[in-house]
Amino acid sequence: MAGAAGICVDAQGRVLLAPQGGPEERRAWAVPGGGVREGEMMPDCCVREVWEETGYRVAVRRSLGVKTSSPAGPGRRFELHIFEVEPIGDAVALQDPDGFIHAVGWFRRGQLRDLDFAFPEDRDLILGLLGTAP
Questions:
Q1: In a 3-state reduction of DSSP, which class is residue 61?
Q2: Is the CATH number 3.90.79.10 carried by domain 2-112?
Q3: Mean pLDDT for each 10-residue chunk of the chain (134 residues)?
Q4: Which residues contact 48 (CB under 8 A, 6 or more apart)?
């Protein structure tokens, strides 16, 4: 299984996150992303997923690498291609077809330490990308 996610940084140096979680799950902040569709290129998947989950149209700046995990146990591997993206317009509305996204938020570097992340390893990746921004 494979997918893509976009770390969206605006002109003020803030990062866009969405709290995810189903009705019976805890809600935690996450980088918008999801599974690739048949025939879809990873950058296109990233752009689509960010739009679906946040309502923001974005442009891909660059690839940040691939994160692998085994969420469904041994023998099931998920590859997530991570991209740095930038917003190219104002948000329209959440388009999340899965119903796991409930809101979005823009956060400065100093606010990230206190957030509950769905994938804690993403915090360091985001902090590294933001560098010394406040």
A1: strand
A2: yes
A3: 95 91 81 95 97 92 88 72 93 65 85 92 91 66
A4: 37, 40
Cβ contact 80:67 at 8 Å: yes
> 19-25 contacts: CB < 8 A, separation 24 or more?
19/101, 19/102, 19/103, 19/105, 20/100, 20/101, 20/118, 21/100, 21/102, 21/118, 22/99, 22/100
pTM here? 0.85
Looking at residue 70, its pLDDT comes to: 62
Phi, psi of 130 (to 5 degrees): -75, -20
CB 52: neighbour CB atoms within 10 A?
Answer: 17
Classify residue 134 by its DSSP letter. -
CA-to-CA distance for 101 and 104, rounded, in angstroms? Answer: 8
User: At 124, which helix (H) or strand (E)?
Assistant: helix 121-130
- Give the pairing of strands 2-8 and 33-35: antiparallel
Residues 53, 34: Cα–Cα separation, whole Å: 9
CA dist., res. 134 & res. 13, Å (int): 8
Give the start-to-end residue ranges of the domains of the chain: 2-112
